[in-house]
C-alpha cells in the first residue's frame, strides 16, 4: 500500500435550469441556493474537494430560456464548479451562442469528441488536470452523438461539426498524459447510463480510467455500478440531489484504494442557503415574474406527464391541440419536449414556457399506413425501455397495441378502423424531429416525400398552445390507451 490521500468528488448532471427550491410536504427541496450552500459546506469541511457537472446546465426553466443561458452561466459561476462537460442541450441556442457562452464562464468547460469535421479540430479543450492536495486528477469530457440532431437546424455551422468515437478519444488523451503521474482519471460523460457501461467495457485497463461520472439518461442510482473495474455513477436530474464520492487515493500506485458514495438530498435540513445565490436568483426572478405570471387558462384538473416513454394525459392534451388547430390527421408530439411532470389546473405563461421550452416549427408530411406501421415498430423497439430514445405522444383517433416480447402490433387503428398499408395520412411533427426523422423513426424524409412534399405549417408550436388555451377554459384529458404496450 502506497501513500494514501483523501479526495471528495461532488457531482451533478442534467440540472436543466432547476434553480428554484420547491415546497414538498412543508419542506423546501432542491434549488441552487441550497445546492450552493451544501457544496460550500463540504468544501469547508473537507480540504480536498472538487465539484463537477456532467452536462445539460441549460433549458427547462423560464430563467434560462428568457436570457438564453446567460443567466445560467452567471448562476453556475457562483456555484463555481471545478470542471463541467458539455451536454446536448448546451447547443440548443446554437453553436455560435455556445462558444460565446463559454467566454462568459469562469470555470473550465471540456469536451474531447466534438470537433470541426474538415480539420478535426476540437471545439473545446478536451480535458483538464486538477491539482489538489498533492494529487493530480485528470478529467476528460465526452458527449453523446445526439448533439448532432440539434445542430442540424444550423444550416451553416451545423454541417461542419461531428462527433468522434469516444473510446478512441479517451485512449488518445490517456496515452498523451502518461508523464503527468495522474492519480485519478475521471470520464465526465453525457452519453447516458447504458452507454457509460458500454464505454467502460471497451476501455483497456492499461489506460487507467478509474471513474465515469455520467449524465443524459437522468439515472438516479442507489449505488455506483462497476464495469471493467471502472466505477460508474450518475445523480438523477435537477438540483434535488447531488452525488458525493469520498475516495481514498493511493498516490504511489495511482489508483483508488477505497471509496464511499452517496446521493445527498438537497433540502433545508442539511443544506444552508447561500444568500449571495439567493440575491442573484431573485434579480432574475423579478424580471421573469413580471412577464410570465399572467394566467393563460384553468384546466379542469392537473394533467401529468410522469414518463416520456408512455402515453400521458398532458401529452394527449398537447397533441390534440396541435391536431385540431392545424387540421391534420395525426400529430406526433415529441414526448421528451414536454419538460414538466404536470401542468395546471391554473396555467400561467411561465408554466407554459417551462413545460414547452423547445419552441419549434411544425412540419406536415404525408405518410402511408405501411410507413406509419414501420415507424411505430421502430419507436417501440426494445431499446426504448433501456436507453434514451425518442417517444411520441399521439393525437386522438390513433390506437396502438404492441406486444413487447413478440415485437408486433396487435392493434393499429385510426378512428376505430384498422390502418391499411395503402392509406395516406397528413402527419404533423416538430422540426427537430422532422430533420432527424430517419434516426428517430427509421423512415427517411425522402421516403415520406415520395407521397408529397413536406412543408412548414406553423412556425411556433408554443403560439398555438397559448392561443388555444387562452380561448378554452376547463379543458381536460385522460390516458385513453392510445399507445398500449403489453
Give a short synopsis of this structure.
29% of the residues lie in helices and 29% in strands. With 486 residues, the chain is of the alpha/beta class. Helix 3 (70-79) packs antiparallel against helix 8 and helix 8 crosses helix 10 (349-355).
Task: Spell out the key features of this protein.
486 residues, alpha/beta, Purple Acid Phosphatase, chain A, domain 2, 5'-nucleotidase,  domain 2, 2 domains
Fold and architecture overview:
- With 486 residues, this protein is an alpha/beta fold.
- It has 2 domains: 4-285, Metallo-dependent phosphatases (Purple Acid Phosphatase, chain A, domain 2); 294-485, 5'-nucleotidase,  domain 2 (Alpha-Beta Complex).
- Helices cover 29% and strands 29% of the residues.
- The chain has 15 helices and 30 strands.
- The strands form 8 sheets. Strands 6-5-4-1-16-17 form a 6-stranded mixed sheet, covered by helices on one side. The chain has a 6-stranded mixed sheet with strand order 9-10-12-13-15-14, covered by helices on one side. It has a 5-stranded mixed sheet with strand order 24-20-28-23-29.
- Strand 25 and strand 26 (408-414) form a beta hairpin.
- Helix 9 (313-326) packs across helix 15.
- It is globular.
- The termini are far apart.
- The mean pLDDT is 94.
